[in-house]
Amino acid sequence: MENDSKEELNRRREAAWAAFGSLKEATGQLADSDLQSRLFDSTVLPALCYAAETWPDTADTPKARATHRAYKRCLVQPALNISSDFAVQI
């Protein structure tokens, strides 16, 4: 059972990265961070969190949180014009 949840989490993470890639291309030139955030919430989060309420709370669960933080850093970094070294610290 745990192996199934690990595979499901990996599939969800891959789907979310795919959704994020197309979103990043589409919103890369948008200056409105609120619009970027709403698009992120409507496309990437559902891909990552689909059926998350049925996942057991295992050691793999923090991977989903880490993936979510990585998306946020990718969206925030260009808007802040900060170096990648500082963005990693966020």
TrEMBL record:
It comes from the Eukaryota. This is Uncharacterized protein. It comes from Strongylus vulgaris (Blood worm).
